[in-house]
Amino acid sequence: MPASAVPSAHDRARRLAAVLDRCAPWWERTGVRHFAELAGRLVRHGTPRPGERVLVVSCAAGEALAPASAAVGPSGLVVGMDVSAGMTRRAALTVVDDGLDNCWVATGDVAEGPPYPVALVEGTFDLALAGIATCLSPWPERVAARCAELLRPGGRFVVPWWGMPDPRWVEVFDANVRPHGGGPGGWLATDSPCWTVDWVHAMLRRAGFAFAHTREEPVVTRFSGPEQWWAWIWSTPAREYFEGVPHFLVPIVRREVGAALEALREPDGSLVIRSIARFTVATTPY
Questions:
Q1: What's a GO biological-process term for it (predicted)?
Q2: What is the pLDDT of residue 189?
């Protein structure tokens, strides 16, 4: 790709917000509770305590808000932010419907820095949680650095990210979608190095954190069959793989991917993705 055609970080950030907006109406509404499971684990790794102030960046539709709100109690505070207005509308509905009186939600990118769309005071938060979409940010180090500024001394930051993907599913995309012009769009930080534990820990040190450790956990996502998988994939940023396919080739791609999915069925007819999620916990210096 010519240098002039490479999208800037700001372009990728805008594309990330746009694809999340397109996902928002169906996010976690396809019968598969994938991101809610990740959010629950994220909160557990953050260990919020009664009375603490918690910032949730890339909060998506608010899956982490309720468990964080319950943990900090009425004397605590939870603030959710996301780059997608569609997602924060969903999160705001969660706040209202669940009666989360200690929660606020706003649309914005913490990496952009102040002024923020909601009152955020440096050095006042006890815990910052980063949603899984942080992995798609064109500037994860800036996200981490801004969170470090907002945390008090000894504050905790938790970021989730993916380990090695299930190789069977990589083949579904690479062998059946890319040849037809599909693939990840400019919202991916394609010029970032591959994330490794050493890279993430070094990035967090540069961002202002004094200590970090990472744990790996298996994640199993089960679908009733190809139709549920198709519905789910279009509710996630991975939809850009298919949005890049010329419309006249979509039936061909659908047929080829469908054949690949049939080959992946479990004995009971279901489809299973087995992944590794990594949760890195870092602390600011005292």
A1: methylation
A2: 42
Task: Specify if 241 maps to a domain.
Answer: no
pLDDT at 8: 80
Q: Tell me the pLDDT of the chain averaged across its residues.
A: 89
Render pLDDT for 154-206 as a digit per residue (tens, 0 to 9): 999 999 998 877 888 877 766 556 565 555 543 344 444 457 899 999 999 99
Question: What backbone phi and psi angles, to 5 degrees, belong to 196?
Answer: -130, 165
Instruction: Judge whether 132 lies within some domain.
Output: yes
- Note whether 107 and 85 are within 8 A (CB): yes
Q: CATH code at 122? A: 3.40.50.150
Determine the Cα–Cα distance for residues 261 and 258; give it in Å rounded to an integer. 5
In a domain, 260, yes or no: no
Q: Is residue 46 part of a domain?
A: yes
Q: Provide the number of structural domains found in the chain.
A: 1
* Token pair listed for 283: 């602390």
Provide the whole-model pTM. 0.90
Q: Which domain holds residue 146?
A: 3-165+186-221+275-283
Residue 54, beta-bridge partner list: 78, 127
